[in-house]
Amino acid sequence: MKKLKKIIILPSALFLLLLVFIIPKHLNASGEKSTNDATITESTADPGNATAADNATTAGYTTASDYTTASDTTSTDDTTTAGSNLSVHFLDVGQGDSTLIQCGDATMLIDTADDTMGTAIQNYLTKRGIDQLDYLILTHPDADHIGAAPVIITKFAIDNVFMSDFQKDNRTYQKLRDALDYRQITPVTPSVGSVYPLGDAEIIILAPNKTYDDPNNASIALAINHGDNTFLFTGDAGEEAEDDMMANGYELSADVYHAGHHGSRTSSSRAFLERVAPASTVISCAEGNSYGHPHAEPLNNFRSMGIAVYRTDEQGTIVATSDRQLITWNTAPSDSWIAGEPQGSSPSSITPPDDTPVPLVVEGVSYVLNVSSMKFHRADCDYLPTANRQDSTEDRESILQAGYTPCQRCDP
Question: Which residues pair with 232 in a beta bridge?
């Protein structure tokens, strides 16, 4: 019986020893398991306009079908890199561009959308405690990129304004110049290869590489390097400007590519995408926009190359956050792969019913005019008007002088 008591007492003593001295070392004050061994990497991105269902934050993925959630990505104290996070806010401004970049106390705004978005952008910045910009970059003088600039220039202190050297003779551009004069700001066109600090990130200017006749090709293009991560912005640069960027010798590879010209077929050539080799692209455009952005061609390229796509027309404001090693997002990539359509149409109405008259290509016709919208098309355009149509044999210059604007789909 004494032997049996010894057998019982020994394991009881071991249990008490374990309870008193060992287990508490692995519990915190609340009795929960300590997390000192690893820190879960969580997205600090602003959810913007994403829905609750969209807030499945992703990080470190390489393709649209191969990404890991932030809660699955860990970092230890040994691998944490010092420095401020870089946050890139692709603002939902409808059919236009505006991107806010913050790194520590440094702030930059790339483009300002059209003149209807001034107050919205001002409020977005103000809610984040921003009253000063280190840089305002206006990539080119199209209204959907500079329209709200007068509001930003008059409401915020701005250290540097970078502008394309392409000038326009219209009211939108004059308002911009008036605002700059009012604040006594002299804008500059930065030279290709110039490097500027943004907190502990750096900005390198990649375009324009020459003088262009097209304002889109005259866009300022730039890369933002932050540790191991790079973001590329090209404004509305078309294939000619993309070719010039590839020829200038500067590094173009990037983790995130802001799709040129709102996802238009005039930008994001296959050769350019192969050089950039992004893991992700962000398309800024409005739902149901009249330009049909994004076009099918770049979407097909993104998909076939395994590039994850984020879209403001589907997901609202999109925020990417770099910690110098990983990039986390406030929403999962889009999986719709739906190209844009003319205003008011839907995927089921792209193909006309049998009783809808389909305009024919008339031999000898140079261009097809829409006398209502004052747009003109190539004779083989897929989106020729069925009503208010007028066939023309005049040359392009004569049609432009008559007040017509070119179709953004066929780019006549």
Answer: 223, 257
Note whether 161 and 191 are within 8 A (CB): no
The residues with which 391 forms a beta bridge, in sequence order, are 368
- DSSP code for 177: H
Is the dihedral angle over the CA atoms 284, 147, 49, 155 positive or is it negative?
Answer: positive
Sign of CA dihedral 53, 59, 61, 67: negative
Residue closest to 265 by CA, chosen among 153, 407, 169 = 407
Q: Are 292 and 261 in contact (CB under 8 A)?
A: no
> 242: closest CA among 227, 225, 257?
257
- List of residues 6+ apart from 372 with CB closer than 8 A: 385, 387, 388
Amino acid 372: pLDDT: 60
Mean of the per-residue pLDDT values of the chain: 78
Answer whether 260's CB lies under 8 Å from 297's CB.
no
| Cα Rg of the chain (Å, integer) | 27
Return the structure tokens found at 219: 């866009």
Q: Which residues contact 115 (CB under 8 A, 6 or more apart)?
A: 143, 147, 148, 150, 172, 175
At 5, which helix (H) or strand (E)? helix 2-17
Give the count of beta carbons closer than 10 Å to the beta carbon of residue 325. Answer: 17
Taking only the tens place, the pLDDT of each residue in 302-352 is 999 999 999 999 999 999 999 999 999 999 999 989 998 543 433 322 223
User: How buried is 75 (Cβ within 10 angstroms: 0-12 exposed, 13-18 middle, 19+ buried)?
Assistant: middle
47, 117, 130, 341 from 96: Cα distances, Å: 20, 9, 22, 16
Per-residue pLDDT for 357 more than 60? no
| Mean pLDDT score, 238-255 | 96
Residue-wise pLDDT for 292-313, tens only, equals 999 999 999 999 999 999 999 9
Task: Delineate the domains of the chain, giving CATH numbers in brackets.
Answer: 52-329 (3.60.15.10), 352-406 (no CATH)
Count other Cβ atoms within 10 Å, centred on residue 403: 7
Which of 188, 192, 240 is closest to 213 using CA atoms?
240
For residue 292, which of 243, 227, 347 has the smallest C-alpha distance? 347
Identity of the amino acid at 354 = D
Write out the two tokens for 302. Answer: 């993104």
